[in-house]
Design goal:
Arc Repressor Mutant, subunit A; mainly alpha; single chain; globular; 103 residues
Length: 103
């Protein structure tokens, strides 16, 4: 699979996203998607569909607490799933734009 991405690896065309695209995007950053990744990705895509916002870390933690579980809604857990910058990496794999207030 080959998708058009920007210089940072985000999809140029959000409509190109699919579960297969997510797997491809994750592989490009050495992540193998497991059930817990999909929980975050799906919650993130629903939030984006409702708001048009790719959330920064603090809001991502709240979304995971509300939509996935209290135990998984913390930055340490999200860092284990999406190392480095969870909000940016999760948005990238979910096919969303880069969060605007992430460095």
């Amino acid at each position: 699979m080959q998708l058009e991405t920007d210089k940072d690896g985000y999809l140029k065309h959000l409509g190109d996203w699919s579960p297969d695209a997510a797997v491809w995007l994750a592989q490009s950053v050495d992540i193998v998607l497991e059930v817990e990744h999909w929980e975050v990705i799906n919650a993130l895509r629903v939030f984006y569909a409702d708001t048009g916002i790719s959330p920064a870390m603090r809001i991502l933690v709240k979304i995971v607490k509300q939509k996935v579980s209290l135990e998984k809604g913390n930055s340490i857990h999200l860092l284990t799933l999406f190392p480095g910058s969870p909000a940016k990496l999760a948005a990238k794999i979910a096919g969303l734009p880069r969060p605007t207030n992430c460095i």
